[in-house]
């Protein structure tokens, strides 16, 4: 079976990015990788270690694709529910609670 080739764009991530991710993974294995400055907790998840490595590579100017936009922001835009309908639903739920107390 022939291996699939990437279109003429070349490598998606640069070699420097790979090195910084590798270093972050080794630090994580040793238990010395932390999620920020100061007294932040140790990183335990593999995904978080990779993200830290890629972020460091990005800051140093290595070839790394842009961050994906968060799902939260796209979710807000596509929301069809209006604020007035939210207010009315809150009113009905609060009236239910007061009737239970009596």
Give an overview of the whole structure.
With 102 residues, the protein is an all-alpha fold. The protein has a domain at 12-66. 57% of the residues lie in helices and 0% in strands. It has 4 helices and no strands. The chain has helices at 15-30, 46-60, 71-78, 83-101. Helix 1 (15-30) crosses helix 2. The longest helix is centred in the C-terminal third of the chain and has 19 residues, at 83-101. The radius of gyration is 23 Å and the shape is extended.
Mean pLDDT: 78
**Structure classification:** mainly alpha
Q: How many beta-strand elements?
A: 0
**Rg result:** 23 Å
Shape: extended
Task: List low-confidence stretches.
Answer: none
Largest sheet: none
Span between N and C termini? 73 Å
Percent of residues in helical segments?
55-70%
The helix tally amounts to 4
**Beta-strand percentage?**
under 5%
The ordered string of helix (H) and strand (E) elements is HHHH
